[in-house]
Amino acid sequence: QVHLVESGGGLVHTGGSLRLSCSASGKIFWINDMGWYRQAPGKQRESVATISGSSHTNYADSVKGRFTISRDNEKNTMYLQMNSLKPEDTAVYYCNADISSSEFSRGDYWGQGTQVTVSS
């Protein structure tokens, strides 16, 4: 079984920064693509940033230049550095990972989410 746990959320003022972490544990052979998603009240979940197994990154237009996604393969951990935060960044942030538990077993996993609130 594989588990993803997010941490680092909280309450900040506009213009502030937060760093989210997502740690994977359990039977892990290799972590393929990883990503951060967010869901604001009354809205659909949306992609924020993704990072491939070779560390190729993609960002939503709304966060380009402010957020940075990274990963540490030795620690099975992904990060999201969020700078210049805006009230519209307020949401529950979820991590997602495509994880191979063996050469023949692969699954898509989600964390439980961490709340980010940006006050104006």
What topology does this entry show?
Blueprint lengths: L1 E6 L2 E4 L4 E9 L3 E10 L6 E6 L5 E3 L7 E6 L4 E6 L8 E10 L5 E5 L3 E6 L1
Parallel strand pairs: 2-11
Antiparallel strand pairs: 1-3, 3-8, 4-5, 4-9, 5-6, 7-8, 9-10, 9-11
Can you describe this structure?
The model has no long low-confidence stretch (mean pLDDT 96). The radius of gyration is 14 Å and the shape is elongated. The termini are far apart. The strands form 2 sheets. Strands 2, 4, 5, 6, 9, 10 and 11 form a 7-stranded mixed beta sheet that branches. β5 and β6 form a beta hairpin. The chain has no helices and 11 strands. With 120 residues, the protein is mainly β.
Helix percent reads: under 10%
Assembly state here?
single chain
Largest sheet: 7 strands, mixed
SSE pattern, N- to C-terminal: EEEEEEEEEEE
Task: Give the C-alpha Rg.
Answer: 14 Å
Shape: elongated
Please summarize what this structure is.
The protein is 0% helix and 59% strand. By secondary structure, the protein is mainly β. Strands 2, 4, 5, 6, 9, 10 and 11 form a 7-stranded mixed beta sheet that branches. Strands 1-3-8-7 form a 4-stranded antiparallel beta sheet, with no helix packed on it.
Keywords:
120 residues; seven-stranded mixed beta sheet
